[in-house]
Design brief:
This protein is an alpha+beta fold. It is 31% helix and 26% strand. The longest helix is centred in the middle third of the chain and has 19 residues.
Length: 150
């Protein structure tokens, strides 16, 4: 499993059973994390980040559950950045950049379009033992003048 970069002062991790409810729980957790970190609904990355997260967790549940009974979401953030990794223990690593025109689904293509449209980045990182991977998304925050309590 990947560890959020040390340069991000805020972190949160949630591990969920690889079943349909994981998508809703991961999204609700992300909403709470963003609120706690001072990222409000007005931030342009908030809603797309929730959609990206939902798609990545749904993909883990749909495609990796046979080998990975759990999916872990790692959140990390700083004053200008929100990042999250979705980890499962299935060894297959999707080609993020080749997904834009590939059938059957458009889930990863949508993830990449949203991520790049926000000026963010995406990377797939394999576990050291090659038994799993994380898809890590990093997005810039564009908050208006407010500061965090933490």
């Amino acid at each position: 499993m990947i560890t959020p970069p040390d340069s991000f002062p805020y972190r949160h991790v949630v591990t969920l059973p690889a079943m349909g409810a994981a998508v809703r729980i991961a999204r609700e957790t992300a909403e709470q994390v963003l609120a706690e970190w001072g990222v409000g609904p007005q931030d342009p990355c908030r809603n797309p980040a929730l959609l990206i997260l939902s798609e990545l967790v749904a993909n883990s549940v749909r495609h990796a559950a046979v080998l990975s009974p759990n999916v872990t979401v790692l959140f990390a953030g700083g004053p200008d950045t929100f990042a999250f990794g979705v980890h499962d223990r299935h060894p297959y690593r999707p080609a993020l950049f080749a997904s834009a025109g590939i059938a059957p689904g458009r889930g990863l293509a949508t993830v990449m379009e949203l991520t790049h449209g926000l000026g963010g980045s995406a990377v797939v990182r394999g576990d050291v033992d090659e038994g799993g991977k994380s898809i890590w998304i990093t997005l810039p925050l564009r908050r208006g003048g407010g500061s965090r309590d933490r």
